[in-house]
């Protein structure tokens, strides 16, 4: 197994990518291909004494920066590290691709180079949220700002399979994100999607609010990318706020500091559960290849976690399962829902 890593993706590239790749290579003993400017990568690898690890560098002279527009940036920088890495994946030189770079650029290049799985109209970016009872998959979190109801139905099929494979949940409970649990709540998109999901063989439990998500009452939440991205960023912001306030209050007096020391294991567990570094990246489901997109702020731990998640997806044959799911279930049972698939 080889995992391809965009070494020029994060805000502080290539240091987090190199450190994360070294940690993963040491643990898994499987090849990681670092794609990026070799003049910046090779000296760093020597500094970390990584010569004996299964790491390979493929030169890519261009970098698609966070400020670059996806289409214009790719045209101006055709040999950017994302494009070069995805071409390696397309040519079978790796089993999965990981980047912490420009999300729009990653989606554009992945769709352009790998194409979509036949039958998929829109790829969806999929995140794993911590809940009171474990974890929940949320799809889409930003790949598609504007959606049609049939797109969300496809997200439900792909997300359901992802929850089965990665979370090990049989027949995942599927909820549609809305401003109320009642079927009459929501906008036109929610109303139409609700009707379509009721006609599928999925374990659709109806509309859900964020509270059901975080209480663990649902295994998969479906929404459009605009709403999903706001949900993701709001959740991250609230989690950081709570941790920061708790840290400040526990250091306010010597007595509180002593209490914090005694409760350190509990706080450590909470921090680990809420940290996005433990997941590392979100898969772009629907493109014909395993593509994982992390946050620009990713550190070495997040990069390592992203590589671990990509490796798990390869081991579980997530891509093969998605192709089969779409061919056997989505393309057949959704023909009446979405005639364009027939």
From TrEMBL:
> Enzyme class, one word?
transferase
**Entries under InterPro entries matching the protein:** FA_synthesis, Phospholipid_synth_PlsX-like
Q: Point out the gene that encodes the protein.
A: plsX
Its recorded name reads: Phosphate acyltransferase
Task: State if Magnesium is listed as a keyword.
Answer: no
User: Which HAMAP family would you find in this protein's record?
Assistant: PlsX (MF_00019)
What is the organism field in this record? Anaerolinea thermolimosa
Localization? Cytoplasm
Q: Which family does it belong to?
A: Belongs to the PlsX family.
Job description of the protein: Catalyzes the reversible formation of acyl-phosphate (acyl-PO(4)) from acyl-[acyl-carrier-protein] (acyl-ACP). This enzyme utilizes acyl-ACP as fatty acyl donor, but not acyl-CoA.
Enzyme Commission number(s) of this protein = 2.3.1.274
Pathway terms, separated by semicolons:
Lipid metabolism; phospholipid metabolism
Q: Could you tell me what reaction this enzyme catalyses?
A: a fatty acyl-[ACP] + phosphate = an acyl phosphate + holo-[ACP]
| Gene Ontology MF term list | phosphate:acyl-[acyl carrier protein] acyltransferase activity
Q: How does it assemble?
A: Homodimer. Probably interacts with PlsY.
Keyword set, alphabetical order: Acyltransferase, Cytoplasm, Lipid biosynthesis, Lipid metabolism, Phospholipid biosynthesis, Phospholipid metabolism, Transferase
């Amino acid at each position: 197994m080889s995992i391809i890593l965009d070494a020029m993706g994060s805000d502080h590239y290539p240091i987090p990518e190199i450190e994360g790749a070294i940690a993963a290579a040491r643990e898994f003993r499987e090849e990681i291909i670092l794609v990026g400017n070799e003049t910046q990568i090779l000296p760093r690898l020597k500094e970390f004494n990584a010569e004996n690890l299964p790491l390979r560098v493929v030169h890519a002279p261009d970098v698609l920066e966070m400020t670059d527009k996806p289409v214009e940036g790719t045209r101006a920088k055709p040999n950017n590290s994302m494009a070069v890495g995805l071409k390696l994946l397309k040519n079978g030189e790796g089993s999965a691709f990981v980047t912490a770079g420009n999300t729009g650029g990653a989606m554009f290049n992945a769709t352009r180079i790998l194409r979509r799985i036949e039958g998929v109209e829109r790829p969806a970016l999929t995140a794993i949220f911590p809940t009171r009872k474990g974890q929940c998959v949320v799809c889409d979190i930003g790949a598609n700002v504007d959606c049609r109801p049939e797109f969300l139905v496809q997200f439900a099929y792909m997300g359901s399979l992802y929850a089965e494979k990665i979370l090990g949940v049989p027949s995942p409970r599927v909820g549609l994100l809305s401003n109320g649990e009642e079927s009459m709540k929501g906008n036109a998109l929610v109303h139409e999607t609700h009707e379509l999901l009721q006609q599928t063989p999925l374990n659709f439990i109806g509309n859900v609010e964020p509270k059901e998500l975080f209480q663990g009452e649902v295994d998969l939440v479906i929404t459009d990318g605009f709403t999903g991205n706001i949900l993701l960023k709001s959740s991250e912001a609230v989690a950081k706020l709570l941790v920061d306030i708790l840290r400040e209050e526990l250091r306010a007096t010597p007595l509180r500091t002593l209490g914090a020391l005694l409760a350190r294991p509990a706080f450590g567990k909470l921090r680990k559960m809420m940290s996005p570094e433990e997941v590392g990246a979100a898969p772009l489901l629907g493109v014909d290849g395993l593509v994982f997109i992390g946050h620009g702020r990713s550190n070495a731990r997040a990069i390592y976690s992203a590589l671990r998640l990509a490796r798990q997806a390869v081991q579980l044959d997530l891509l093969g399962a998605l192709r089969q799911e779409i061919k056997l279930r989505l393309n057949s049972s959704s023909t009446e829902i979405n005639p364009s698939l027939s």
